[in-house]
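Protocol step 4 of 5: obtain the predicted structure for the target chain.
Materials: sequence only (see below). No template structures provided, no constraints applied. The aim of this step is simply to have a reference model before the mutagenesis design in step 5. Sequence pasted as it appears in the construct record:
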Amino acid sequence: MADGRDESAVSGAFDMEYDFPDQVITYIMSNTPVPVGWLRSVYNTQNALANECFLDEVAHEAGIDPVQLRLRHLPRSNRLRRTLERATEGRASPIKNGDGTGFGVACHASFGSFATSLAEVQVDGERLQVKRILTCLDCGPAVHPAGVRAQIEGAVTLALGNLLHEEITIEKGRVQELNFDEYLLL
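Step 4 output (structure tokens):
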């Protein structure tokens, strides 16, 4: 904490790779009865989710392909841009197909690594199925490639669980799921 501010809380937001001419990043600390903490990594990942969801909303409202929106705002020589270009190489627009399938896209840079993920999903009524996820990563030289792969696979697995079905129940101020037999991971 510096000057009453937790700088890590805006990590991944104030230092985005996107080149937006007008942006304001604000953070208001709110102490709640339920303590909060980092997800799998650091605040950076939570802010990446918020940033990328917001960009999808902007693209939707503007009627712009979400990949094209991101490309417009990533400088040409940017490593994150290159992961986005590589991940989407040879693919049609990742917005949606007529058969209930579509693609989601997310890009983020953190601690010297740059990643883009594409998720192929299918919606059938109330049922959402993630068919596959492709991740393109530029982390520089990998001393232990199997460890890098394990990090990506673990991050994708936990993100899917967080987004699709995991939840914490609080009753009378207490968390009800006390261990992993009650809090089921993906």
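Step 4 remarks: The chain has a mean pLDDT of 87. The two ends are 34 Å apart (CA to CA).
Proceed to step 5.
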